[in-house]
């Protein structure tokens, strides 16, 4: 799964990992900002990495959690969805608006393969000091360069070069 090869999401090990992630999310999403003593250990235990002074506002949703690597001083606002069948890296000082969706999960284009229920994924890399506006969608395999800005509601279908501002569906360079 993590290598980008086709995999069966019904695999018992993967089902168990998703069940564990759901238990983590149930506990995390019942907390409030004042529950730092509870939140930090939950994030440290279930994410691949969580940087110093990183903040994730509940509710927060993941597939597995262990494929998510968050740098220092990162902020994720309410309702973010990170489908982490592959690695998601978020660089330091990045700010992510409410309802942002980051999808590494993908499905075969061939209808027979889809019918068989197999899937694949592509990793996502988000650089440092990036600002992603609310309800943006980041599609599988995308890299977003340092110091970039993603407009609210944008759909990111391809890589964003460092220092670029993009917006729209599909997102296009605006500055």
Give the helices and strands, then pairings.
Elements lengths: L11 H17 L7 H11 L2 E2 L4 E2 L3 E3 L5 E3 L4 E2 L3 E4 L4 E3 L4 E2 L4 E3 L1 E2 L4 H5 L4 E2 L2 E3 L4 E2 L4 E2 L4 E2 L4 E2 L4 E2 L8 E4 L2 E3 L2
Parallel strand pairs: 1-4, 2-5, 3-6, 4-7, 5-8, 6-9, 7-12, 8-13, 9-14, 12-15, 13-16, 14-17, 16-18
Antiparallel strand pairs: 10-11, 18-19
End-to-end separation: 36 Å
Order of helices and strands: HHEEEEEEEEEEHEEEEEEEEE
Largest sheet: 7 strands, mixed
Would you identify the CATH architecture?
3 Solenoid
User: Which geometry do the CA atoms define?
Assistant: globular
Proportion of β residues? Answer: 25-35%
Output the CATH class name. Answer: Mainly Beta
Average pLDDT taken over every residue: 97
What number of structural domains do the residues give? 1
Q: Total strand count, please?
A: 19
Task: Give the radius of gyration.
Answer: 16 Å
- Which structural class fits the helix and strand makeup? alpha/beta
Total number of helices: 3
Helix content: 10-25%
Find the CATH topology. Answer: UDP N-Acetylglucosamine Acyltransferase, domain 1
State the fourth-level CATH superfamily.
Answer: Hexapeptide repeat proteins
Query: Numbering strands along the chain, what is their spatial order in the largest sheet?
Result: 2-5-8-13-16-18-19
- Poorly predicted regions are none
């Amino acid at each position: 799964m993590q290598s980008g090869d086709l995999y069966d999401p019904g695999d018992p090990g993967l089902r168990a990992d998703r069940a564990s992630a759901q238990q983590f999310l149930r506990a995390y999403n019942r907390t409030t900002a004042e529950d730092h003593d509870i939140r930090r250990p939950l994030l440290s235990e279930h994410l691949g990495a969580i940087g110093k002074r990183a903040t994730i506002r509940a509710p927060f949703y993941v597939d597995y959690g262990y494929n998510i690597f968050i740098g220092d001083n990162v902020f994720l606002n309410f309702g973010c969805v990170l489908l982490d069948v592959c690695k998601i890296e978020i660089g330091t000082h990045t700010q992510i608006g409410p309802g942002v969706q980051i999808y590494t999960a993908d499905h075969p284009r061939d209808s027979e393969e889809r019918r068989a229920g197999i899937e694949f994924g592509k990793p996502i890399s988000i650089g440092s000091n990036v600002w992603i506006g609310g309800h943006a969608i980041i599609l599988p395999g995308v890299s977003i360069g340092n110091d970039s800005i993603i407009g609210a509601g944008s759909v990111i279908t391809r890589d964003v070069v460092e220092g670029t501002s993009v917006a729209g569906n599909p997102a296009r360079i605006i500055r």
